[in-house]
Amino acid sequence: MSESDILVSGATGRTGGAAIDELVAMGKRVRAYLRSDDERAAALRRRGVDIAVGDFTDIDDIRAAMEGIKSAYFLHPIAPGIISAAAYFAQAAKEAGVSAIVNMSQISARRESTSHAAQDHWISERVFDWSGVATTHLRPTFFADWLAYPHFAKEIWAKKKIEFPFGNGRHAPISTDDQGRVIAHLLANPAGHEGKIYTLHGPVEMNHTEIAAAMSEVLGAEITYAPTSIEEFKRKMEDLYRFPPFLVQHLVEVAQNYREGIFAGTNDVVEKITGTPALSVPAFIAKYRGAFV
User: Where is the NmrA-like domain (predicted)?
Assistant: First the structure.
């Protein structure tokens, strides 16, 4: 392996990929931790990114990927296994002398969460804290990217409706681009962020009626918010989207959390850490209008 000193897991995902983009632009030496050495790995190599192959079930793979690393990003999908993955990652980091970890959690992470995934994220935060390796936890609200995910974007554009079960709840959508920039800056300059928990929000808190209006203006077509019941959304996730049961259980519970205000709020954390404000919903939709039209 090369003399990279920053490790990014989830490197072909949205936040990991955005973090690598920012780190490369900053001139940092980056190593990507990937599950397979495929064309996506080859594309990263062409950009000067070092590649380590493995997953979160083999501590020896993780330990090898940590060699020479100073700071590392931990990202686990919303799927079973995050607690053991966090323990392996933390132990490997400790053995390798890694000085800083950035951990992707979620805003609903708490001990009493009824979402198995959110509760597991909270436990994983504690695992990193127990490890003694200085860790910064990120707790983003709902991603702006939800609107542009292929499952949802195609349906929104076809029906000209946003059919989510969020009632009149509010949040300030945060893009994965902005999260990636935060991750990159924390990895590159971790001093002062040790042990911190940062909630990540976009710049403006909105309900989905306001989000639909912003989308309408940018896309030049009238889009409305047509709230559904949580049970209707659950059936759609199971029957139409074919989401795995663990993910469905999580999304059902966080839909209720959203209605209760757990995803609400806004702040300027993105700007304070990166020096650049977070994208607004209109700016995000304009940037990714190709997902809709």
Answer: 3-257
